[in-house]
Amino acid sequence: MSPSATAPVDAGEQAPTPPAKGIDKFFKISERGSSISREIRGGLATFFAMAYIVVLNPIILGAGTDKFGHQLNNGQLVTATALIAGLTTLLMGIIGNVPIALAAGLGINAVVSLQLAPKMSWPDAMGMVVLAGLVLMILVASGLRQRVMDAIPSGLRRAIAIGIGLFIALIGLVDSGFVSRNPDSAHTTVPLGLGVAGRLQGWPVLVFVVGLALTFILIVRKTRGAILIGIVTMTVVAIVINSLAQIPDAQWGLTIPTVPDKVVDTPDFGLVGDVSLFGGFHEVGLLTGCLFVFTVLLSGFFDAMGTIIGVGEEAGLTDERGQLPGMGRILMMDGVAVAGGGFGSASANTCFVESTAGVGEGARTGLANVVTGALFLLALVFTPLAKVVPSQAATPALVVVGFLIMAANVKEIDWSDSTIAIPAFLTMISMPFTYSITNGIGLGVLAFLLLRVATRRTREIPWLLAAVGLCFLVYFLLNPIEQALGVS
Question: Which of 84, 150, 400, 431 could tie 346 with a disulfide, CB 3.0–4.6 Å?
Fold first, then answer.
């Protein structure tokens, strides 16, 4: 035993911190001010906040019919969704070492189901997704994708994070039934309203309200595991209420809080690998095929970019320049996820804003992703259990995290500079109001470029950001461009 091992520590000195080992060292858990228990809690919270995708993605893709009248099998879609989400989330955790989970992207799956598939076969449509992922990986390998992210001004980065916070808060309010869309038949100028017909109705909404209040109280009292405690507690409450009150399934939505008849189910991998890379070009032509790939590429590019920035800022992982450690690996794994989603016929996988639920629990490393990814893989055989948590029990976490993101970022924007403040404002409101991260980033970038040109500050515009603005201009004008070219 060395002398230093037994030497007493002076009162004015601190004992040296023991070197990190094993899992701690690999994921840099202590270095980032976290702990294994926090990472596990964070991984659980993220999974419960986004487990709905195992149910929702098959519904969206299954509703589509390809050019030949074929529909995808629901059971196979459930397997593909859980499998690709689990694998890509694990890869992001182990290689990227960030608590950013991935799954089939909402919005992109609608493009695949409603825009691509009707003009080609399902394997052709998924091949387009794979090609978009391969292009993303090339952009990352060339360094171009990271340079685009670096070119975004700090104030706009903060606004992107806030916009995502508002976006996921609205997702929470809508998915819980606290806020609902007014039907067009109502002939009202108000697109959204409280509950149903302006009133909160039913036990499920009460579960959300109580869960939201409980989670905020736990946050204010600085209770460890506040978000996860809220989700688990309200899931149990929902199961009890549903068993006693016999609530119609439609009031709960996609997930019914009941004790499942069976715990284990057999996965069906029939869709995995059923892909045709270039068959879509034969069906629609080279130009239209390239536009389809561009649409998937652009949505995946900027949705993921906004989420990575937002989650990174919320987790405190960014440096003074707003960059995350190992950004190249993170972006490459996102490209792999897009291609992997197409290969598995689950549609493009992308970074999920619900990862902020885990960050809110203290997750700071990829270990949280390992937990989330493992749970998705377990869902392959334990799908009945994954369907136990109703959205009303999980969505309070999204509203709470939306608040936390805004509180952490809004004061960091330079509101005295209108060329930053106005684009920031447009970015923040556009994401929830258009239900799209990509739209918010696009409007913010275009507004920033316009105002800098109008104030003769063009020298302050990075050329790469100007190129991004041009891409967004094409994105917003894509429909008239298609019509002009006769490919709509």
Answer: 84
Q: How far is Cα 367 from Cα 19, in angstroms, rounded to an integer?
A: 18
**Structure tokens that stand for 374 in this block:** 């493992």
Tokens of 328: 């190249």
Concatenated DSSP letters of 284-307: H-HHHHHHHHHHHHHHHHHHHHHH
* Rounded Cα–Cα distance for residues 112 and 108 (Å): 6
Rg value, the chain, Cα: 23
Residue 86 near residue 379, CB atoms below 8 Å: yes
* Structure confidence at residue 10 (pLDDT): 43
Tokens of 234: 């309200």
Q: Tell me the average pLDDT of the chain.
A: 84
Q: For 225-241, what is the mean pLDDT?
A: 86
> Would you give the distance in Å from CA 321 to the centre of its chain?
23
How far are the Cα atoms of 304, 443, 467 from residue 446, in angstroms, in the given order?
19, 5, 11
CB 291 within 8 A of CB 127: no
Neighbouring residues of 401: CB distance < 8 A, sequence distance ≥ 6: 165, 168, 169, 227, 314, 356, 357, 359, 360
Residue 6: band (very low, low, confident or very high) from pLDDT cuts 50, 70, 90: very low
Tell me which residue of 422, 128, 106, 36 sits closest to 254, measured CA to CA.
106
Task: Say whether 46 sits in a helix, a strand or coil.
Answer: helix
Query: Contact at 8 Å (CB) between 373 and 90?
Result: yes
85-89, 248-252, 326-330, 463-467: range with lowest mean pLDDT = 248-252
Burial class of residue 471 in the structure, from the number of CB atoms within 10 Å of its CB (0-12 exposed, 13-18 middle, 19+ buried): middle
Query: Would you give the DSSP letter of residue 268?
Result: -
**Residue located via tokens 């808060």:** 169
**Taking 90 as the threshold, does the pLDDT of residue 449 lie above it?**
yes
Residue 107 structure tokens: 């919005």
Helix (H) or strand (E) segment spanning residue 38:
helix 36-50
Sequence-distant (6+) residues with CB within 8 A of 3 are none
363 within 8 A of 312, measured Cβ to Cβ: no
Q: What are the residue boundaries of the structural domains of the chain, listed by start? A: 31-485
Helix ranges, 344-462 (H): 355-360, 366-378, 383-386, 391-409, 418-434, 437-454
Q: Where are the alpha helices (DSSP H) in 177-247?
A: 203-220, 226-245
